[in-house]
Amino acid sequence: MITMTEIAKLTGVSQPTVSRVLNGNKNVDAAIRERVLACAKEHDYQPNVLAKSLQGRKTMLLGVLVTDISNGFFADLTKRIEVEARKRGYSIILFNSDYNPRNAQECLDVFRRYRVDGVLAVPIREASMEWQEYVKKLDVPVVAVTRRAQGLDSVYVDHFHAGAMVADYLAGRGYRRFLFIGKDYDGKYVGFRQAMEAKGFGGQTVNTVYENDEQLRKTVQSWFRSSWNRAAVFASNDIYALRVLDALRELGMSVPGNVGVIGFDDTSTCRYLNPRLSSVSQPMERMAREAVIRLLDRIEHPGARELLDLPLQAALVTREST
User: Fold this and answer.
1) CB 154 within 8 A of CB 308
2) CB atoms inside a 10 Å sphere around CB 295
3) What whole-number distance in Å separates Cα of residue 257 and Cα of residue 70?
4) Does this model's pTM top 0.70?
């Protein structure tokens, strides 16, 4: 890759002049500027972003940290974030934590080394002291996406409300026994559980933690063998819902004839299953846009101000599985 020094030799001008031209300084003779730009284009000159950052200038890079890029929801969200960033002249560096706090910390360290201008992150344990300490070390603006994080601008879906919405729907459909696939601290489950308790179904509502495919299969099959009359499963994402459908298929149970199943995220897969999967849809495009806008506002206008707390509402998409 050609350097500024080499461009200076090829064009017969000084290296500082080349630097001024390539950095947009207009106070250079037009003929010289044209010659330098033509040479840079011919030899595919690429600026050294890290060198610029060491000089205290922006890298025009945003770090994006998600929990599971294999989940179609996060893949689509990242794509929309990238589109919104590119509109405004920024590129992204993407990392996947795989729901591992240690991985998340290592990713944030890489963001520091690359001197990104800001970070969009899906925190794992957003209230933990470890997370908050690592965020402070970044020394750049951070916006939490999809979850509300203490002390940070946050753009997210109200998971508590979404869980309660699913509870209202399933109870209204006549289901009377409920299994949630996911963590008990997940806002979706908390909202779901509280709504079921208010309806008198607290004793018929349980959750199981997803560890691996085999454990999930055994748990689901054991739960349904004990009693499956008017039972429904609420999975905390569509991937878990697919695994539930597979376990039920092995049991020979009909969906929705014997069991109802509903997922979360409304990924494109939901529409092509048999039966098509009911799910909860998040306003992904708006979430990405609002998060990027807020982050760039923090980058371009540093200083203390009130945190953004922007809960967005999810929508229930009902299909054949319920």
Assistant:
1) yes
2) 28
3) 30
4) yes
